[in-house]
DNA-directed RNA polymerase specialized sigma24 family protein (Sutcliffiella tianshenii), 700 residues
Amino acid sequence: MIEETVKVKSILDGNKDAYDSIIERYKNRLYAVTLRMAGSEDKAERLVEKSFITAYEKLALYEEKDFFSDWLYRQTLTLIKAEVASYGKTNPEHYIQFYNPRFLEIEEAIANLESKNRFEFLLHHALAETPEKLAVFLDEQVEDIKWRYQQSLKAIRERLLEFDPETSSEECFSFDELIQYFDEVLMEGGKEKVEDHLEFCPSCREILTSLKAEKKGLEDVIHTPKLDDAFNRRVLNKLTPYVKKVPKHRTWKYQLGVIGIMAAVFMIGAVVVPNLKPLANKVAAYIEYGTIYNVWTEGTYKATDEDLSFEVKSVDIDPLHMVVYYEARRKDKLIRNFVDFDIFEPNAVQLVDENGKKYPIEVTQPMGSMFYTPPQGNEADNHQSFVIRAIEEEKLPDKFKLKFKLRRMQGITGNWEVEVPIRYDKVENNLKVVELNEVKEIDGKIEIEFLTMIYGKHGSRLTYNVRLKEGEKKRLENLLKETREGDPVLERYQYAYADIQLMNQEGQYMVPLYYHSQLMEWTPGERITQDYSLYHFDYENYQNLGKTESNGPYFADVRNIHYNEPSFVSLSLPLEEAENKPLNIELEGLTLKDLTVRPKENGEDDRSYQILINAVRNKGESEKQYHWNVVGENGEYLELHYMGNHIPPDIQGEFELFNAEIFPRDIQKEMDKVTLQAEGAYNFYMFDEGELRIPLFEEE
């Protein structure tokens, strides 16, 4: 029985607190949609709260034959769709939760979509549901939803991606053709031609890398907003418990009938159960020898439903990781790069001992998802894998089971359950721990402290800290106090982040393992524990290159470091034509030198202005990018298209600090001036391969 069905039964019996886990599972998916439709956190939170209350009041209508998430979305989305229909265009500045210029660009691209298209686009990504499912939830035609999604994706790509035809040769494919290849909609022959061309064309590979980064950024942005734990309690406090139904007394005839059925089941079992003896022998052998390879025969740990099968092919275990190799097939045809299944759903993967006690675990994204493409070769080389990590590894029992309970694969609802017995006491504890105690300082502002490196048989683990030095931290605190003291969003992001890659002795980058908690949130300021697999990848193209022979020894290669600072800027700019008008304004290590304003006629009643500010850098080593916006005379936010907006590292002499075009559309009154504002700056340090490399082993 599905766990949520059990929860519903408990709720209908009067236990309204059982609704808490249902709220927790679905609240952030709905909030990710409503926030960007409502345009404010308060309005979005009230709408999600109202939808959960409405669904609760209809729980008695839920039928067990339905997949619960489908039923819940039908109830909540009907309400949300009606509410957001009246909402207009939103301004991401009012609700963005992560002050990152790239995130803001993506948010603005989403906000620029038409309301209905935006709603369906957000649902597609936040709920990870197919167009067929969304059509049912929203009472729309499938083809219409598919068409609107493609239009939305095209509009977002046009805003976020740049394609320079001058960098391409006559043999290069068009931008649209590369997009079709990336979206896997090219015919087989066309796909092979593109792949042959990519092998020798860096400019086309660069476009594909941009498409991958755009896809990753889009997912990161959409899943960023979170509702706190207090939200659950606020909803529960507004619910009235159901009154438990008391069953009627059964007659003696009914009870005798039940006994007869049970007897028949027992007799059938006496015939059927002996046929399971071969499988029992395999499991017994496995438990005895503590290894999977001498008993793991084809189909032993396999589940099939709706013409789809999920099979656990093998499990590699050391005290750090449990690497699960699996395979998915549709009608016996292997599904490559298989990532669409609900592995991150609560209870989709469980670790349970002989007494039924569950142990907390974390699960990684599959190795074939995100940036990493599985290596191409024979079927044996293409087994997908993911990694399980026990939260408290030292408390694991000698014997336990890994239980896989999947309810969605390839957009199809079904039931795929597999149990794999494990003898953990047979696992060899062959970890090697290296104490590093290495500190690297960057620009007098940041420290990276490398603490420990652990080498296991099936992966490794690096522990480190990234922090601002006290002087820089104090400077940022003072900046915040001067203008926006107590702003929880800005205060949260006054921390340094680092992209640290592991590299083996052959110069190959190792694929990092990202657990679900790392994908959803990260607590700044705490020590970072990062796990790595035995696979290596192409750093430039993010392509999985296969498995290495051994684990380590490794180097840590620092590729970039970044952090935000609360740089509050407000400049009043007249909208009169000017060319290199002197400014001479001092701004945190910069001198704003001059201003250029160029009015542009774009058609009847459509005017824009190009604004260019040149500056000279006085100090600092990081690349810096300000979070600019332009405000009209009455406080209206104006549409802004960047053409240049960063301070390159080690810049000498004059450079363009700000180059953008503003569009005072829908502003009836003629404006004489605008205000250029910035509420923060993004500091970014980049390092070449090997420029900042730390050995993670004991040197002789």
In short: The first strand starts at residue 302 and ends at 305. Residues 246-259, 261-295, 374-381 have pLDDT under 50 and may be disordered. The two ends are 58 Å apart (CA to CA). Residues 202-222 form the longest helix (21 residues).
